Amino acid sequence: MYKTGIEGTERFQSPGKGNGLRAVRHFALGELVFACPAYSYVLTVNERGAHCEHCFTRKEDLFKCGKCKQAYYCNIDCQRGDWPMHKLECVAMCAYGENWCPSETVRLVARVIMKQRVTTERSPSERLLLLREFESHLDKMDSEKEEMNQADIAALHHFYSRHIRDLPDSQALTELFAQVNCNGFTIEDEELSHLGSAVFPDVALMNHSCSPNVIVTYKGTVAEVRAVKEINPGEEIFNSYIDLLYPTEDRRERLLDSYFFTCQCTECTTKSKDKAKMEIKKLSSPPETEEIQSMVHYAKNVIEEFRRAKHYKNILLLMIISFLSSLTHHKMGAIFTDTNVYMLHMMYQAMGVCLYMQDWDGAMSYGEKIVQPYSVHYPAYSLNVASMYLKLGRLYLGLEKKAQGVKALKKALAVMEVAHGKDHHYVAEVKREIEEQK
Questions:
Q1: Which residues of 386-414 are buried (b: 16+ CB within 10 A; e: fewer)?
Q2: Radius of gyration (C-alpha) of the chain in whole angstroms
Q3: What positions does the domain MYND-type occupy (predicted)?
Q4: Which of 8, 250, 336, 422 has its CA at a distance of 20 to 30 angstroms from the CA of residue 119?
Q5: Considering the entire predicted model, what is its pTM?
Q6: Mean pLDDT over residues 372-388, rounded?
C-alpha cells in the first residue's frame, strides 16, 4: 500500500472551489513541490518512431514492435513494460491496418479502463486524489459536448470491444470520458510540441489561477510540479489550466467552456494586463468597439482553423490558413499594435507555417517580433517564453548567427532551470548546445 499524502502539502476544501491543494511548509522559487507518475498515458501517433512508447525518451535508434511495426521502444525492458497497454492496440492495428484511427482520448480511456481492472490499491499517482473522485460536470455539458462524448464511446466499442471484455455500461463510459476530458493533461516537450496525453490524479487536484504559483513540466511520463513563486505555509497551490496570453474575457470564456467555472483570481478581477494585451494604435479616428470585436472574432476563427490544420498536418489547408492569417494580420495591423496579443498569435501561427515549410529566415523574423512582448504578457518563468527563446536560439545557430543564438538559449535556460529544474535532461541539452558554441 502506498503512503497517503504528499510531503509538504495537504488536500483541503478550498472556499468556492471544492477540493484543492495547500502548502504546509515553505517552498522556494524553483523547488520541486511534488512529482506524480502518470496513472495512464499514451504517446501521440505523430511522434511514433521519434519517442519510446513506454518512457517517452527521444532517441534516433529506437526499435519497433515486431508484430504491428508501429510502436517503437528504447530496449526490450521498455517493450515489456509497455506490453500490458500496447497489447490492447497491437493486434487491432494489424487487423485494421490504415483503418485503425481511434482518437487520442479514446486510446487513453481504453488504457484507463485496463489500469482500473488490474489496480486494486491506491496507485502512486493517487496519493491525495483518486481517479474515481474526478469531477465529470455531466450536468453542465452542452449538446455538442454530449455528441462528442457519444462519438468517443462508439469509437471505443468499435476499436476495443474485441480486446476489452465487458466494457463498462454507457452511463459509466459517459462519465469516464467526461472525467478524462476535464482532468486529463497533454505532455509536451521543451518547445511545447505535443507528445501525448495522460492522467495525473494528484496534479488534477490543484485549482486554477491566471497568476499561478507552480508550473507543471514533464520528465518522460512523470509530471513535476515546481514553485514559480515563493509559497508560504497555508497558501493554496495554484496551477494554470490554459494559455495565459489572452485578455480576461477570453481566458474566462475558455475556462467556462472547458472546465465549467468562472475564474475569480486576482488577475481576472483586476484585469491588470488587459490594456497592454489589447493595445491599439493611436489613430486620428479611433475604431469603433464593434469593429475591434469583429476583428478579434475573425482572428479567433482563423487561429482555431490553423490549430485543426496543424493537428492533421494538412499542408494544403495550412497554406490556405497561412494566407488567411496574412490577410487578417494586414487588416488587424491597421488598428492593433504589434504587441497586441491577437497580432502576436497571428505571427506565432505564421512562424509555425514557416518552420513547417523550412523557411528558417521567415520563422526567425517572426520569432524576433514575438519574444519580447511574450516576456511582458506572460507571467515570469513561463514555458511559452522559454519555448520561444529556445526556438529562436536554435534558429539563430542554424543560420550561423552564433552570438545571437547563445544569448537566446541563455534566456531560455534561465526560465527552464526554474520551471524544469536544474537536473532535467532538457536543461542539460540546452547547456550542451551553448557549450558547443565555445
A1: bbbbbbbbbbbbeeebeebbbebbebbbe
A2: 22
A3: 52-90
A4: 8
A5: 0.91
A6: 96
